[in-house]
Amino acid sequence: MTKRSLPRWSELRPLLQMQPVPLDPVERRLARCHTVADLREAARRRVPRAVFDFVDGAAEGEVSLARSRAAFDRVEFAPAALAGFDEVSTSTTILGTPSALPLVLAPTGFTRLSHHDGEAAVAAAAAEAGIPYALTTMSTVSIEDVAAASGDGTRWFQLYLMRDRGLTRELVRRAKDAGYRALVVTVDTPVVGQRVRDLHNGLTIPPTLTPRTLLDISRRPQWWANLLTTEPLEFATLQAGEPEAHSALIDRLFDPAVTVDDFAPLREWWDGPIVVKGIQSVADARRAVEELGAEALVVSNHGGRQLDRAPTPLELLPRVAEAVGDRTEVLIDSGVRTGADLAAVVALGARAALVGRPYLYGLMAGGRRGVAKTIAVYEAELRRTLHLLGVPGVDALDGSHALLRAA
Ligand SMILES: Cc1cc2nc3c(=O)[nH]c(=O)nc-3n(C[C@H](O)[C@H](O)[C@H](O)COP(=O)(O)O)c2cc1C
Fold first, then answer.
1. Nearest atom (ligand 1) to Cα of 300
2. Residue nearest to atom 4 of ligand 1 (CA)
3. Where are the catalytic residues (predicted)?
């Protein structure tokens, strides 16, 4: 028979949760987020449905996105026991510049839709964490203001080649003058993928006031108050006109018929490294290196937002790394959601991964501090994974540490 007695205060006291709850609502919200999935849920509760869907959604049936994410479940790590490391190092170099993590914040258009501080908040958080940030052509804060927010941080500029080559050249010049280190040329967007969620939500850029949005204001008053009381939400680099669907704007401005020859002038305008983003085959990886002389490439299906049922970047990565990894830096994106995913992609041949939605979830959940929280989540998870793998640092990861199980 178990003997029972009432607990004494001296026994109970150490069990009491005496952690102070943060008074600041943003801190409180972020303190409850331990994973990117948690940040996604926090984001969902903060912003209008159309805004969340614009970020979270993908093209057509969203098959590319689901497959890109699911592929990470097939990673199998090979840990070494008794490795004897007290400390592990998460840092690496990307394009010759030190980075605190094998992580780059990807270019994402129209960031002020997620939070009124937009790209400036993202740039500041990336700089503070010591990782690169790639500003998009479709930015809602100017190239120069983002540079000021990023200070000494590593910043890259993502370029879409536009029908108006004069404007394209001007953007490259401004990026160069403002201290952007690399030019990321995106090659997977001859036209914009069909984002069905945006169509259903009637999303326009900038958002318009319809009976539906007016209803939404009652549900997300703070987001709308921020939208209506801060700088008008518009493209900082491009001339936009009347509110219109995002895809219509892009199709109007971007050149759908870009070829290898269009890169020649870029080399005249830009003397830094060029990163080709949106590589989806080994053949194109070879062309990017041999014909364009790319200093790095990003194996990417644009987070599933362009061609649906496109190749899955994680599955393509080992073959691309094998084909061109000795001549260029191979980066990857689409579906990287944990620090363990970062370890996996490096083991499978990437120098680093880009993430898009994850930091936008953080931004929606808590502005700049939310982006910082996203990066901190990746950092903690990566550090723990390296320890558990028995690997002293990111740069020691190789093919012996992870494999991709058959589908
Ligand atoms: C809201 C949003 C906007 C994006 N805008 C751009 C863009 O302007 N230029 C670009 O090259 N890629 C853009 N991307 C793609 C990202 O750079 C990146 O390839 C993708 O988000 C990676 O997948 P992940 O979101 O699963 O991490 C965008 C992605 C999102 C989610």
1. 19
2. 108
3. 302
